[in-house]
Specification:
three-stranded antiparallel beta sheet; two-stranded antiparallel sheet; 14% strand
């Protein structure tokens, strides 16, 4: 499991581990007087904020397999649908954006259950990470 996913793994302190990593990143950038740009994304709320009837209609318009559409429709009644964090983490990491620490390690994101905190050296890179994340969710839900 990626270090960025500690917030959702077994045998960790969950969000406490992530908060300690976040604090270390912030202190490292402050000490070295380097830029740090962050963004929070709550992907659970993005899914919940749309009318489920509209989501189902969009899936139909994009010609998603009927069996899969029915599965999603039934899932909406029972639980909240969440994307698998592994492809999300892999795509964000492969983007090449992130904040480079004194140690040489580059941190691009941390996962906290249904939240993702993105790290970059400037606003342009943060926008690129957000765009990559948006495309990832598009692919996960429509393909």
């Amino acid at each position: 499991m990626s270090r960025a996913q500690k917030g959702i793994g077994n045998n960790t302190r969950g969000a406490k581990d992530q908060l300690l990593v976040d604090r270390a990143i912030t202190q490292d950038c402050r000490t070295r007087h380097t830029n740090l740009c962050t963004a929070w994304t709550d992907y659970k709320k993005a899914y919940e904020s749309m009318l489920h009837t509209w989501i189902l209609e969009c899936l139909k318009l994009y010609n998603l397999n009927r069996t899969l559409r029915e599965f999603i429709q039934n899932s909406m009644k029972l639980v909240t649908l969440e994307a698998n964090s592994k492809p999300i983490a892999r795509i964000i990491t492969k983007s090449g954006y992130g904040c480079q620490l004194r140690s040489g390690t580059t941190i691009s994101h941390l996962l906290y259950m249904d939240d993702i905190k993105l790290y970059a050296k400037n606003e342009r890179d943060t926008d690129c990470l957000i765009h990559s994340l948006s495309l990832t969710f598009y692919r996960l839900f429509l393909h």
